[in-house]
Every structure is written in C-alpha cells, then in structure tokens.
Amino acid sequence: MSSEDPFGGLFGDPDELRKRMAEFAEQMQGAQRVAWADNAIKLAVDMTVAGLQRMNLQGNAEQQSRDLLQAMRLMFPEAVILVREAREGFGTS
After folding, report:
1. How much of the chain is in helix, strand and coil states, percent to nearest 5?
2. Which of 38, 56, 70, 75 is the most exposed place for a label (fewest CB within 10 A)?
3. pLDDT tens per residue, range 4-60
4. 2 within a domain of the structure (yes/no)
C-alpha cells in the first residue's frame, strides 16, 4: 500500500478521483443555483397572482382594467427584483 493512496488503489488514480469529485461538486452547485432561480421566479409569480386575487374589483370593465393596471404598477417592481436576483444567481459561476 502506497503512502500517497490510503485506499491501496481501490478507487484508481487519486488525482483522477479528486478531479471527478470537483466536477461533481460544480454540477451540484449549478443544480442548486437553478433550483433557487426557479423558486424565486415562482415566488414572484405567486406574489403577483395573490395580490391580484385579493383585489375587490368594482365598476365597469374599463375601471376594473385601470385598477388592475395600477395594482400591477405597485407589484411588478417587487416581482422584477426577485426575478433579477434569480437570474443573477443563475448566471454566477
């Protein structure tokens, strides 16, 4: 048994094993970034939908449309911030 390889060659070349473990760790980090981005985007959509559903729309279709537009002007920037952060997290290496 070599002093360099405590497992006696059981896993092959130790440098190759380290390289593959590093690649695996990078893949897992990438998967975590994708999952976080997906969750942030879903949260942005859910927040927007929940906010619109809580509205008590009254009046004719034109007034309701104006009320929805006004609400979206308030909610949309928050959703955009979440999506932007998700994309930045996704694009980071």
Report:
1. 75, 0, 25
2. 56
3. 656 666 667 778 888 888 888 888 888 887 888 788 888 888 888 888 888 899 999
4. no
* CB burial of residue 83 (10 Å; 0-12, 13-18, 19+): middle
Q: Is the pTM of this model over 0.70?
A: no
> Tokens 């979440």 — which residue?
82
Task: Calculate ∠ Cα 71-75-78, nearest 5°.
Answer: 170
DSSP H or E stretch at residue 74: helix 61-91
Q: Which residue has the tokens 């004719």?
A: 60
In order, the DSSP letters of 34-55 are: HHHHHHHHHHHHHHHHHHHHT-
Tally the domains of the chain. Answer: 1
pLDDT for res 18? 85
Q: Which residue has the higher pLDDT, 12 or 66?
A: 66
